[in-house]
Write a structure and sequence with these properties.
The structure is a single chain. This protein folds into two domains: about 60 residues; about 220 residues, 2-enoyl-CoA Hydratase, Chain A, domain 1, CATH 3.90.226.10. The chain is built from nine helices and eight strands. Strands 1, 2, 3, 4, 5, 6, 7 and 8 form an eight-stranded mixed sheet that branches. Strand 2, helix 3 and strand 3 form a beta-alpha-beta unit. Helix 2 runs parallel beside helix 3. The two termini are about 45 Å apart.
């Protein structure tokens, strides 16, 4: 009797164990099916929105060139290789504007504190090239809140520069900033270990003293870039610039004061230039921006990664 009872209990335990495994397998199968359906639906939604935005963008591009107009190109924010004020974006807008047979004039509306001299240089060079190629299309720079440093580097390539009386203009100079923590790490008892090949590879390291030779070298580099900036401004503005020693010192002025210095020609807005100077009141924006498709792709990509990260966990 005892053996029979033990066998029955063993059999029930095995059945319960098998049942538990089967139940767990079924639950896991259902979970995988649900996630599979979810990602399929998400993919279909992504494709649908992608297609809608693609069609919308194509329709938006089709608006260009509908009648005589003034072309507008915005240069907003810091000028750098990873911003919307990058050379690739601005130059793309410039080329489209110049190549449109209905463009009567181009307005560069600038609101920038400056940025990369390389990116500003690319844009300046392209404006000069396109002006020479399309001599019947004038280019006017219109300053809104600020046009400093690299922003003015670009503006100087225009036929004329306009501003508001309260605009901030200038800052024709070059700067390189950093910090030094030499005494700090000494007080904290921290040992700096920097290995490098090349006598000057570790120069400008913030955790060791700056050598006199390094300072001289960097200052020479800054002076050279500053002179390039000065040459570009003088080439663009010519005799309109006043003989003032502070002009290239890095100072800034209001739009009204800038007229006296020859940095700005007159006070006017973009709409005034389109209406009264170019003679084509209709303004079409040729500014290349990060389109909805790029923005959506970044957002949906981040969302999918977050969703996957939340759902996949170690148990």
């Amino acid at each position: 009797m005892t053996d029979i009872k033990e066998n029955n209990e063993s059999s029930k335990f095995e059945e319960a164990l098998i049942g538990g495994f089967a139940k767990e397998a079924l639950t896991e199968q259902r979970r995988n099916r649900r996630w599979g359906i979810f990602f399929k639906m998400l993919f279909v939604l992504y494709l649908s929105i992608f297609s809608i935005i693609y069609i919308f963008n194509n329709l938006e591009v089709g608006n260009f060139g509908s009648g005589k107009h003034s072309a507008l190109i915005e240069i907003n924010g810091v000028i750098a290789a990873n911003t919307e004020a990058r050379a690739d974006y601005v130059i793309t807008g410039l080329r489209r504007a110049f190549e449109d047979e209905n463009t009567q004039g181009i307005i560069l509306r600038i609101n920038s504190p400056g940025g990369s001299p390389v990116q500003a240089g690319y844009i300046n060079d392209e404006i000069i090239r396109l002006r020479a190629k399309h001599q019947n299309i004038p280019v006017y720079a219109v300053i809104t809140d600020m046009c400093a440093s690299g922003g003015y580097y670009i503006a100087s390539a225009a036929d004329k520069i306009y501003a508001n009386k309260a605009s901030i203009v200038g800052s024709i100079g070059v700067v390189m900033a950093g910090f030094g923590f030499v005494e700090t790490i000494e007080k904290l008892g921290i040992e700096r270990r920097l290995l490098h090949a090349g006598d000057n590879k570790g120069f400008m390291d913030p955790f060791r003293p700056l050598k006199a030779a390094e300072t001289i070298h960097i200052q020479g580099l800054l002076n050279e870039i500053h002179q390039q900036f000065i040459d570009v401004v003088k080439q663009g503005r010519g005799d309109r610039l006043k003989d003032d020693e502070t002009l290239f010192s890095g100072l800034i002025w209001t739009g009204k004061e800038s007229i006296k210095l020859g940095l700005v020609d007159e006070l006017a807005s973009a709409s005034q230039i389109a209406r009264d100077v170019i003679g084509a009141e209709d303004i079409i924006d040729y500014t290349k921006r990060e389109n909805y498709l790029d923005q959506f792709s970044k957002k949906i990509g981040s969302a999918m990664l977050q969703s996957m990260n939340d759902s996949i966990r170690l148990q």
